Amino acid sequence: MISPAPIPGTTLWIETNQSARSVRWIIAQLLEALGHPSNDFKIVVS
Description:
Blueprint (H helix, E strand, L loop, with lengths): L3 E3 L6 E3 L4 H14 L13
Antiparallel strand pairs: 1-2
């Protein structure tokens, strides 16, 4: 990992030097691994 950051409340880390598309994919994978549907995550742009 180039720029790892811990995910609070877990033992997981995420690479912070990623494209927006890559980050969305990683979040979907994490949600699935933790037993949540991927639509539990929503991006709101205002």
